[in-house]
Amino acid sequence: MSIDVWETLRQALIASPEIAEMVSDRVYLFQAPKNTQNDYIVFFEVTGNIPSRAIPCDTNIVRCRMQFSCYSQSPVRAKTICDRVARTLNRRQDLPPVEDVLLEQSSMLYDDDAELYQCSVDFEVIFDSRVARYGKN
Question: What global pTM score does this model have?
């Protein structure tokens, strides 16, 4: 039986008291439902399997880049949520089937369509495809 990587990451965020305090369970894959209450997090895969930097490489190890976008009417709150996501996920090696989560970069912008501030943080997520699934596989 394979374990869903995306749901594992979502549950890790919801289980964090400092994140739940700000967004409750409003953590969504791909997009938030229309009229979602402010503040919330949307996450998605930016790039699929990134080739391993190590040689020789284990072909069962998947490295994908994921972005977690934190939305709020306040730029300070968006940044605070984003910082909490970074603290909660960075270097996590206790989230089976995820083997590691590595912070890559973050950015801040104003989303004109949503009329909200968006602070995003990207991670490289590493897992073993023999025990995990993500996306449509």
Answer: 0.88
